[in-house]
Specification:
Strands 9-15-14-12-10-11 form a 6-stranded mixed beta sheet, covered by helices on one side. It has helices at residues 23-30, 52-65, 101-112, 152-168, 181-192, 201-212, 246-258, 263-279, 321-336, 343-347, 378-381, 430-449, 468-473, and strands at residues 38-46, 71-72, 75-76, 79-80, 83-84, 93-98, 124-132, 135-143, 237-244, 283-290, 307-314, 361-367, 385-389, 400-408, 414-424. Helices cover 33% and strands 20% of the residues. Helix 8 packs across helix 12. A hairpin with a 2-residue loop joins strand 7 and strand 8 (135-143). The longest helix is centred in the last third of the chain and has 20 residues, at 430-449.
């Protein structure tokens, strides 16, 4: 018997299914949208005598250490499966190429936008772009089915450790991993049970979501562009940067504390109000991503543990800000308690067209992390400078998507919130997208300033800060 509370190494069955968090990406890839889920990082390395051979060896060691980087995902008679490549037969897609600074951006974008065939390809590719003897750019592209956002910290840290070791002619001094992603997958399925069992955790979660989402409007009627023919690239996206200063950050935290909620819940409440105004709907479904790393032993593993959870917010059932925040708090906590229902399975259980998206609007908040390189052999790394640079590829998988980060100073005081809004160019023009961002800024600013009154008095503002008194006198109705 295995401890149900802790993943442990275990014998592998002939068929290893996908983890719940992987199913959405796998189905998207089958529909021809594999490239939408590429996770690309470009890192500029500067230092005396960059050792390209050592860098290539480090990449190979990295893929050997983390099984998801050498896993294929074919369809089998038993369903989609995880098949880990034999290390002896590893064929890693790594190439070295000399480029000029003028060629760099296009080369990175081409690599980052290229699709993986998950049934045949390893889900990772890399290029070492050599700008000179003391400067290279490493482009690393991994499919999201094999990594999530929190994987990038241990992945980059392990890569730097391996590079420094290979350059010195030694083996990387990595701590052994407690178990593999396959072990995690099998443990997860043991915990969830089978959907054919009406008493299983999997069935309980599916039943919760089917009830919570029944009768919601789908899709939201957003002020989108009209096309005479399908756009050539519906996921091509653009970004709008935004930020909130420390004063606004403090005000939002004050509201969160008063409402026994989190900063994320406050921002999600503001987001729901903004989406409702934009769509002309008092019943909106917004989403976020949960990490899925429910045990500390998962922290150092590379793999895809995260998944989307939905929050249906009924704006017409909240008379004021306090009631809205309480509703969002309850809905968010319920969503966190039911995180393991794959979207493709849920879509089949709802009375809606399966071609329609489960959600169109998502907001993700993460806390700023300490730079990962600092922990990797500081003395040896002093001569190595690593700077992340943009890949030039923006894929908009949803209509309205905020990715935000909250920052704190060394003493833990709020230092502000920043991030970006991502939108599909095929759906919105820049003016419409900017208007949505300005409206969100306005709602956030009012909440931070202390407005707690009726939702119907929250103005459809631009980004200009308005006083609480102005909000209370506002006549424009959102709902």
């Amino acid at each position: 018997m295995f401890d149900p509370g802790v993943p442990v190494p275990r014998p592998r069955p002939a068929h290893v299914p996908l983890a719940p968090a992987q199913e959405r990406m796998w189905h998207a890839a089958r529909l021809g949208r594999s490239a939408d889920w590429n996770v690309a990082r470009a890192m500029r390395l500067r230092g005396t005598g960059i050792d390209v051979a050592a860098l290539r060896s480090a990449l190979e060691l990295l893929v050997l250490r983390h099984e998801p980087l050498r896993t294929r995902y074919p369809m089998t008679a038993a369903g989609p499966a995880q098949v880990v490549a034999d290390p002896a037969a590893l064929d890693l897609d790594v190439a070295e190429r000399a480029v000029t600074e003028a060629e760099l951006a296009a080369t990175i974008a081409d690599l980052a936008g290229r699709a993986f065939d998950l049934t045949r390809d390893l889900p990772v590719r890399a290029r070492v772009l050599v700008l000179g003897p003391d400067e290279v750019v490493l482009v690393l592209v991994v499919h999201h089915i094999s990594v999530d956002g929190r994987s990038m910290g241990p992945l980059i840290r392990d890569l730097v450790t391996a590079y420094l070791a290979c350059r010195a002619g030694t083996a990387p001094a990595w701590a052994p991993l407690p178990f593999s992603y396959i072990d995690y997958t099998l443990w997860k399925h043991d915990r969830l049970g089978d959907f054919t069992d009406e008493w299983s955790r999997a069935t309980h979660q599916l039943r919760y979501w089917a009830n919570a989402l029944a009768g919601r409007p789908a899709p939201l009627r957003l002020p989108a562009r009209e096309h005479l023919s399908p756009p050539a690239d519906p996921a091509a996206g653009a970004l709008i940067a935004l930020s909130f200063d420390a004063r606004t950050h403090v005000g939002l935290l004050r509201l969160a504390q008063d409402g026994r909620a989190s900063l994320f819940m406050v921002l999600q409440a503001a987001f729901a109000v903004t989406v409702g105004a934009f769509a002309g709907s008092a019943d909106v479904t917004v989403a976020t991503a949960v990490s899925g790393r429910e045990h500390r032993l998962l922290d150092e593993l590379v793999g895809n543990f995260s998944d989307d959870v939905l929050m249906r917010v009924r704006l017409d059932r909240a008379a004021d800000v306090e009631e809205l925040l309480e509703q969002v708090r309850r809905v968010a906590l319920a969503a966190y308690a039911h995180p393991d229902t794959p979207n493709p399975r849920l879509e089949r259980c709802l009375l809606q067209d399966a071609a329609l998206p489960l959600f169109q609007a998502t907001l993700i908040l993460q806390r700023a992390a300490t730079p990962a390189v600092a922990s990797a052999e500081p003395a040896a790394a002093q001569a190595l400078s690593i700077t992340e640079i943009p890949t030039g590829v923006v894929r908009a998988k949803h209509d309205l998507e905020f990715g935000l980060t909250d920052h704190y100073d060394p003493l833990g005081a709020p230092a502000g919130i920043d991030g970006s809004f991502c939108y599909p160019l095929a759906r919105f023009d820049e003016e419409t997208a900017a208007r949505f961002v300005d409206r969100f800024r306005g709602v956030v600013a009012l909440l931070a300033d202390g407005y707690r009154g009726p939702l119907t008095a929250l103005p459809a503002t631009t980004g200009r800060r308005r006083s609480v008194g102005t909000a209370r006198r506002a006549a424009r109705i959102l709902l």
